[in-house]
Amino acid sequence: MGIAKIVAENRRARFEYFIEKTFEAGMLLTGTEVKALREGRANIAESYASPERDEMWLVNAHIPEYGHGNRNNHEPRRPRKLLMHRKEIETLRGAVERDGRTLIPLRVYFNEDGRAKLELALATGKKAADKRETQKTRDWQRQKARLLRDRG
Asked: What is the CATH number of the domain that holds 121?
């Protein structure tokens, strides 16, 4: 599965959460939303997914209005239905309701067929100490790379 074109990425997700498993979901979009995404304009930093009844919804994702859209333009922060298999939705619903996990979007992209997809992660929130440990590890990797580059 090669990713064709990444539109939006949630770069803080891996810092804020322990990512346990990822899922791919389609999105039910209007025409102007697809056009705005093709321009590379979207923000999923503060968004999350929520199971409601037998459906999965993407909440608080910002896809700005399409510049050449007319009165039929879309609402930028409207909830968007995610297209997933029923079994996946039930698995995620159980994890969210029983185990208190969170569904975080990692990135929005267009696949090889030109369809807008969302990479969704089942995640657990990190505590402050875990975040410090992540930062320490990242700093050490950066310093190690700098040392190796300078010496060799």
From this structure: 2.40.280.10
Query: Is 146 among the domain residues?
Result: no
Q: What is the pLDDT of residue 1?
A: 54
pTM as predicted: 0.81
Assigned token pair, 33 = 């939303």
Domain count, the chain: 1
Q: Is residue 133 part of a domain?
A: no
Question: How confident is the model over 50-76, as pLDDT tens digits?
Answer: 999 899 999 999 998 887 777 778 888
Distance from C-alpha of 128 to C-alpha of 126, rounded to nearest angstrom: 7
Rg (CA), the chain: 18
C-alpha 24/C-alpha 2 separation (Å) is: 13
Domain membership flag for residue 145: no
Strand, helix or coil at 148?
helix
Q: How many CA atoms lie within 13 A of 121 on its CB side?
A: 21
Residue 58: CB atoms within 10 A of its CB come to 23
Domain assignment of residue 73, given as a range: 5-126
User: Cα angle at 98 between 62 and 50, to 5 degrees?
Assistant: 15
Please choose, from the candidates 27, 18, 97, 21, the residue with its C-alpha nearest in 3D space to the C-alpha of residue 61. Answer: 27
